[in-house]
Amino acid sequence: MNHFRKLQNEELNRISTEEFKQAPKIPVVILLDNVRSQNNVGSVFRTSDAFRVEKIYLCGITSTPENREVHKTALGAEDAVDWEYVQDTLDVVQRLRNEGYRIYSIEQAENTTSLENFHINPEQKYALIFGNEVKGVQQEVIDASDHCIEIPQFGTKHSFNISVTAGIVLWQIVRPLLDNYR
Fold it and tell me: For the chain, N or C: smaller number of CB within 10 Å?
């Protein structure tokens, strides 16, 4: 029988917030396009911290970390991960495109790339857009994207929770880069 002792927090060798700010980041920013659940926003902050995402843009009705529920779910990750509030998602899409980012909406749409077929180029910067829990990414934002990525699904439901989606997509993107960030 295998014996696995659960590690204590102090044994996990996590970096401090200050070290996080200085550490190399994966070449990815996240845009949350009108995400209504503060718990989802906080969860995306924690996932972004775990995978060293460059920055999160909170757009439209998306709550910011000053919100108690966001803070409660983020568990302090909002202090490590850079973030910015921008009212109009299209404004930040254009700004990021001008800065050399490739823009990908995470959405079920025609002619998408299935996530397992998406391969990150570590020399390229990426902006990943996650949408509203009911309506998804706005069509005008999809139209402004370079491409869409879709997660294959095999059950009866047509979507994942946005925080789960962010975790799945970021893991798939980070996995080939792990040696760069350990």
Answer: N
The reported pTM is 0.94
Count of CA atoms in the C-beta half-sphere (13 A) of 9: 2
CB atoms within 10 A of CB 124: 11
* Model pLDDT for residues 15-35, shown as the tens digit of each residue: 999 999 999 999 999 999 999
Q: Where are the domains of the chain?
A: 16-181
Q: Measuring CA to CA, how many Å separate 132 from each of 118, 128, 152, 170?
A: 23, 14, 19, 18
Nearest-angstrom CA–CA distance, 44 and 65 = 11
Question: In the CATH scheme, what is the code of domain 16-181?
Answer: 3.40.1280.10
**Do 45 and 167 contact (CB within 8 A), yes or no?**
no
pLDDT tens by residue, 93-152: 999 999 999 999 999 999 999 999 999 898 999 999 999 999 999 999 999 999 999 999
Q: What are 87's two structure tokens?
A: 């009212």
